Amino acid sequence: MKSLLFITFSLTLFSCTQRPTKALVIENFKYSAYSWHINQEVDTFEFYLAHHIDINKSGHFVLMRHDSFMDTPKYFEGDINDNLFKLIDSTFRSEDFNADYSWKVNDGFLYDGFTYCINYKKTDNNYRKKIQFIPNNSPQQIKTLITLLDNVIFQATKASDSINLKDYSEQLKQLYIAESGPLPKLEKLPPTFEPVKIK
After folding, report:
1. Using one digit for the tens of pLDDT, what is the confidence trace for 14-34?
2. Edge to edge, what strands does the sheet with 74-79 contain?
3. Which of 126, 146, 152, 168 is 20 to 30 A from 33, comparing alpha carbons?
4. pLDDT class for 52, splitting at 50, 70, 90?
5. pTM reported for the whole predicted model
6. Helix %, strand %, coil % of the chain (to 5)
C-alpha cells in the first residue's frame, strides 16, 4: 500500500513539475520563394511559387517544394528543431523590420533570382506582417533565418497531403505589385521571317 501511495505521489509531483508545452511568440509563420517568368507561347508573365512552408505556434510545419523548375510540387510535414524554434522567437520577439527589402531598378545591380516573403502573425495581436525581400538586401537576422528554413524545406522527407496554395499565391502576387510596381508590358515580337522557297 505504501508503495502504491509513493507511486501516486510521484506521478502527481511529476505532472505538476513538467515543463509546459513550448509555443512560439508567432501564432503562424509562413515563408515562400517565388518569381515571375515569361511564358513565350502566350507572351505573358506567369507567377511561379517555388517553395512554401507554414509553421504553427507549436513548431509543426507543412510545406510544398519543387525539386526542379516547374516540376510537380511535392508536399511534406514535420516539426522544426529547437535551434530554428529559438531563432524564430528571438528574431521576431522585438523586431523592427521594414516591409520591403526587394530589388529596385535604382539599386545599381541586376537580380535574376527568387523574391521571398516572410508572413507572420504574433500571438499578442491580430496584425499580420509581410516582409518581401531578396537575400542581398535583407538584414543579417533574416539571412540567417532563411538559411535554416531552406535546410528544413529541402531536407524534409515525411510526405504529406497536398496544400491548396491558390489563394496565398494571389496574395503574394498582390504584395509583389504593391511593393515593386506593376510588371512591364511585353511587346509582341513579329513573327519570324521565313524566306520564300523557289522551286
Report:
1. 333 332 356 777 889 999 999
2. 74-79, 60-65, 44-56, 26-39, 115-122, 128-133, 100-101
3. 126
4. very high
5. 0.78
6. 30, 30, 40
**Calpha distance 80→58 (Å, rounded):** 9
SS3 120: strand
Bridge-based pairing of strands 115-122 and 100-101 is unpaired
Of 52, 75, 61, 51, nearest in space to 26 by CA: 61
Q: Which residues pair with 116 in a beta bridge?
A: 33, 133
Burial class (CB in 10 A: 0-12, 13-18, 19+), 158: exposed
Separation CA 74–CA 67 (nearest Å): 8
Cell of 74: 511535392
| DSSP class of 176 | H
Residue 60 backbone dihedrals phi, psi, to 5 degrees = -85, 140
Q: Which segments within the chain are labelled E, that is strand?
A: 26-39, 44-56, 60-65, 74-79, 100-101, 115-122, 128-133
Run of H or E residues at 4: helix 2-17
Distance from C-alpha of 34 to C-alpha of 172, rounded to nearest angstrom: 8
